[in-house]
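TODO from last week: model C2H2-type domain-containing protein.
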Amino acid sequence: MTNKRFGCEICHKQFSRVDYLSRHLVNHDAVKPYPCQQCNVAFARRDLRDKHLKSKTHQRRIEYLRAQDGVSHEPQTYSTTAEKPPERSPDSYRWLFGDYEYDQSASSLDEPQMEPVYPDFSIIPEPSLTRKDIYSEETIDMLLGMLQLQSLRTSLSPMAVSYFADLFWSNFDTNYPIIHRPSFGCHKHPFLLTLVIVIGMAYSKSSSNMDMAVRIQRRLLKLQMSLLCDSQDLKLELMQSFALTCYFCSNIGDSGLQKQMRLFHATIIGVLDVPSLTRSLQEPQLSELDNVSPAQLHELWHDWIQYESRKRLAFFAYICDSQHAYLNECHALISIFDLQLDLPYTDAVWTASDANLFMSEYSKQPRELIPRRRQSVSLQIENSINIMPHIKEEGKWPNFLFSLRRLMQPYKDHQKEYNMNCFSQFSRLIFLQGLISITWDLRWKGLQDLGIVSNKKMSALVLRLQDAYNQWREYFDFQILTTNNTFLKKDDSQSTTLAHLNRYDTSPIFWNNLTQYQFGLLLLHVDTFAVYKLATQYANAVSRENPYPRINVPTKIRAWIRSPSSQLSLNNACKLLRTVFLSTGIISSIPHLAEYVATSCLALWCYETFREDIPAGVKQSSFPNPIRYMHNGMVSQNITKEDTLQYLNLIIEKEEYGGREYEFTIRQQYIQGLLCYFSLLLDLNEWKSLNINGSLLRQLVFKKYQQQ
């Protein structure tokens, strides 16, 4: 028998010759350089691809992939657009949800049982931030002259401005990487240079800097609106500045800027014109570049930066528009069907510092399809294929609409999906925002608007959306867990993986993703604006003379409190609050998170105040007095913090207390502590655009005991 002396350290298979072992090791490489263009799969060795091409299943797989995944059987370039722009047609969520029969008797997916997986990227060096030569004395003088704010010169030294720019890159850019940092410099448009400073000021945790940022932004908005009247064509940097202004005014600025943005939001979104922007995008050809000169390579890199930046700008405009809609109770202007775009490329490609490194990372992008991860629940589906003719087929990189569709539709045997290393945290945030925008849009649409037949109940769509949210969470947790395991090994096997392509650390975007997911589930079941209006009405009516005012509770709120979904809502609200409770600093890194926190508090208060299952032995006069939370005329953070944790654990862990009467009373006490604790946290928040502040939460607790 042959002595097999050469073993594979990965799978422990033995070989008799070292060249056999070398050939075998190629199978373990994550980079597969031999693709099958028709099936959109790749192989580590050429002989394996040749064998596949001769197989009997080759043609069957072509037809199957076309039917199941919408992937073309023809060889495709990396172009993201068809030669003829697609015709616009009415939105149809039927294409996303699929033509299925939902078994409502089956238990829907609950939130994954695992706690949030926290990444560990301590071994990865942080990239450098702002180059000190970008904001020189001359550049600062030029910007202040443009703004006619020379009086601010003493407050804006090159060192201070560079510090503000660093805050922009470490906070905003990690959440929304839409500006290419390696190519950012003093040659950029003055509007864009100004907004990097302004947004950075907002993260400095200084009231004076925030006031200065609002002052600069107010002046800049006037210049931007004036420019719109004189410009026929807007370049990329100008469009980026308009999108950043939209974000700042809606999420960070004071009430004056927020009011102006309600007027100008539609104008800015119209100027960006996302449908036209997406149709005009075409990715540069970056294959077979072995003999190009360094100058040509740099030019191609520049063209790709323009392409990728415009794509990211379109997604960012969509995020801003979607958030503006559900935080201001209005319609979104950008439909998910306007975004027929590939998702952003990986972090490694986007942050490459030069053309050579860019090409090296670009060649590693995983473009092959792999078997889809099986869902936790199986749903019954029909066999019909629902393809909308105006939606382009998916190409060589994950597409926004198709990625969203995979979350919406149930698992099918032999179904394919893209390698998870294609998806950065920003990409995960984009199609999570897609789920939230659909959730909000369902409130404005009837069944006929959704493109579904009348016997499909809205409750079935809500369950499907809930499953989609939790599928998103399972993928998110799985990718973080896999990435952690890869980097914690700290051995040479890392070189054969693609985990380095994306950063899955605990930067602001990690917390943004986690809290957006929790808020999306809350928004799915709770009418947040009805809750806010009810709380405001109650706070205005309650007093010491009228401690229990008669409030006309809307029918939809009553129905929600009585429904089983109210318990899911309480659970999701508490999980969002616990995330912030355990990491209070994140509220300073994510502007809209403060409003999510306040909304979650009001949802809990609404349920506990207007619930109808009051035990027979409990009277309103016996409710606990919140005076215990006061110390020297101030709310005591220590006592409220303890009761907050008790309430969160009671709801999330479903802890049991002795008797219904005692449990009801203790929950009435703990909810008061929770409102007081988070009111203090909201008061420390610097974001001026917050609609719900700490005083409203305290009025709900203390006003009935105060002298008029």
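Done. The chain is about 50% helix and 5% strand.
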